[in-house]
Design goal:
The complex is a heterodimer of chains A (113) and B (110). With 113 residues, chain A is mostly beta strands. In chain A, 0% of the residues lie in helices and 50% in strands. Chain A is globular. In chain A, 38% of the residues are buried. Chain B is built from no helices and eleven strands. The A-B interface holds A 31, 33, 35, 40-45, 48, 50, 56, 58-59, 90, 96, 98-107 and B 2, 5, 32, 34, 41-44, 47, 49, 87, 89, 95-103.
Chain lengths: 113, 110
């Protein structure tokens, strides 16, 4: 089944404790992206990647890191999480080109205490 | 810069029509529309490209006014399944950076 998977789905952590949220897709998509969703603010892009070893900042990259060492994986790293990073996070992927329909993962709900 | 969506929310009875607007302060190359149901991930509806044609998906269609940097999503003869939050995403000449609006919550009642 074609899908985007994220792990974990739920995470409660404390300020300053490094964490990684994994994202994997099995559709051979070139493009992958991370978004955070907060009430009243919609979806805001954190980072995106156009292909292996090619990443760039979205609208809200502060406090996050990403890497794209393999085409299928695009982990999101919070090196020192803070309470303002409490949010619902979505990973998405698509082919590149003129019709980039993005497929979203199920989301990861992160709470930083 | 996030695009601005209006209205923030709309309540409809089955069979009624609605329009959701999306405006950007920057020149656009593409407008993407997604729908998200409560507790689920966003799902792609359609994409409109600069110079392209108006698109349709069942009874949901959209237009793209490049000069005004605006797009509108039209819900025609709404059904209960149309309920959800609709997001527009805008892309510049490079589609890969995508900025989404805050969303419009649509509630369709029987």
């Amino acid at each position: 089944e074609a899908q985007v998977t994220q792990n974990p789905r739920y995470l409660i952590t404390v300020t300053g404790k490094k964490l990684t949220v994994t994202c994997s897709q099995n559709m051979n998509h070139e493009y992958m992206s991370w978004y955070r969703q907060d009430p009243g603010l919609g979806l805001r892009q954190i980072y995106y990647s156009m292909n292996v070893e090619v990443t760039d900042k979205g609208d809200v990259p502060e406090g996050y890191k990403v890497s794209r060492k393999e085409k299928r994986n695009f982990p999101l790293i919070l090196e020192s999480p803070s309470p303002n990073q409490t949010s619902l996070y979505f990973c998405a992927s698509s082919f590149s080109g003129d019709r980039p329909e993005q497929f979203f993962g199920p989301g990861t709900r992160l709470t930083v205490l | 810069q996030q695009p601005v969506q209006s209205p923030q929310a709309v309540i409809l009875r089955e069979g009624e029509d609605a329009v959701i607007n999306c405006s950007s302060s920057k020149a656009l190359y593409s407008v993407h529309w997604y729908r998200q149901k409560h507790g689920e991930a966003p799902v792609f509806l359609m994409i409109l490209l600069k110079g392209g044609e108006q698109k349709g998906h069942d009874k949901i269609s959209a237009s793209f006014n490049e000069k005004k940097q605006q797009s509108s999503l039209y819900l025609t003869a709404s059904q209960l399944s149309y309920s959800g939050t609709y997001f527009c995403g805008t892309g510049g000449i490079n589609d890969y950076k995508l900025s989404f609006g805050a969303g419009t919550t649509v509630t369709v009642r029987a």
